[in-house]
Amino acid sequence: MLVMAAIPLVLAGCTGNPLERVGRKAPPPPKLAITPAQDSRNLPTSVEIGTAVTGGKVADVVVTDPKGTRVDGAMRADGTSWMPSKALANKQTYTAQVTAKNDAGKAVTQKTTFSTMDKPAKRTVTNLNLQSDQTYGVALPVTVAFDSAIPKDARAGIQRRLLVSTDPPQPGVWAWDETGKQVSYRAPDFWRPGTTVTVRAALDGVPMGGDSFGDTDRAGTAKIGNRVFLEIDNATKQMSVFKDDVLVKKIPVSMGKSSTPTSSGKMVIMEKHESTVFDTTGSPDPYVVTVANAQRLTWGGEFIHAAPWSVGDQGYANVSHGCTNVSDENAEWLMNTTRIGDLVTIKGTEVTLDQGNGWTAWNVSWDQFVKGSALPVPADLKPASPAPGGPANAPGGPANGGPPAAEKPSASPTPSSSSGGR
């Protein structure tokens, strides 16, 4: 009984803050600052709840709409802000309550109330090239295209709203092309076969420069297939097809004649059509022709396609308007072998590929590619050394030897037709 009675006395002596028993003061509550400021008005519907914490970390964020309904969302991985899972509604008032805690359990909470802007009069149309439930080639760059050029001062804000995750992890970087109408994401090397790629372009309500805002959120989850590469050599007029790094077929080709040459460079198959119409009405050399088994390589109208009219020249001479001609049999075999996202490398022609004329993320070195990022490049993805002087394939164009305007009827990252050179 004496021993049992003593126990509560010992336990009572152990209560209180352990730091105070050894002469150390307990840490103060964390310091917390949040945005937007109280009573902010006319904010974009893409607004995020900014959080800056010293001496702790964010423990909870609760955002509610005018009816008191909780808004879904999550903290960014870097802890800088809370991002809603979809754009907020226009012309509504929201309340955000943020709680931060430290290791000692001390907490601080702040609230802010803000209102979103009315529906914008102008929207920028966006396009995401990755669609759910599809299988793509290992060279697929994830691209977001815009129907008008994005000013440089708006690109960082847009880039922060482009989210990519991969399984297994293969981190990459977003980079803008020179036109400002397309931003592409790739890793330093091609995707591993079997990778799952999930993308969210959370652009609804995001400022796009001037008085325009993003049109909608877009998302997709897709798989990466096996390795298929096409190499076309103008010197031999032959296409070599590699499947999982093994040469499986050689195909004779005819490419662009000297007045309408095919571009040399690293391209990616963007579209596949069992049948399509090439219409160059209005060009110096107009024609309308239906072609079978056509695979688009550039926005400017370069395709690989069946061309029974040039079979006698395939393997010997270039007679096309810029496309790569193959026989009916070989075109059908290619359609059954390739995927959107497969790499096509063309070499030895009179002109080089314009950056941005297609999915051209692989047409430059990694060092050069990351220079197009509007945000700081993560340390583990920065080039190991300064970039060597210039891109692997210098841009070309009509002014310096590129394909003439007749071969580029639709030089836009947002395709509107299948116009091409035959």
Automatic annotation (TrEMBL):
Residues 377-422 are annotated as: Disordered. PROSITE patterns: LD_TPASE. The active site is at 305 (proton donor/acceptor), 323 (nucleophile). It comes from the Bacteria. Residues 390-422 have a biased composition (Low complexity). Keywords: Acyltransferase, Cell shape, Cell wall biogenesis/degradation, Peptidoglycan synthesis, Transferase. InterPro entries: Big_10, LD-transpeptidase, LD_TPept_cat_dom, Transpep_catalytic_dom. The keyword Cell wall biogenesis/degradation applies. Pathway: Cell wall biogenesis; peptidoglycan biosynthesis. Residues 228-347 form the L,D-TPase catalytic domain. This is L,D-TPase catalytic domain-containing protein. It comes from Plantactinospora mayteni. The lineage of its organism: Bacteria, Bacillati, Actinomycetota, Actinomycetes, Micromonosporales.
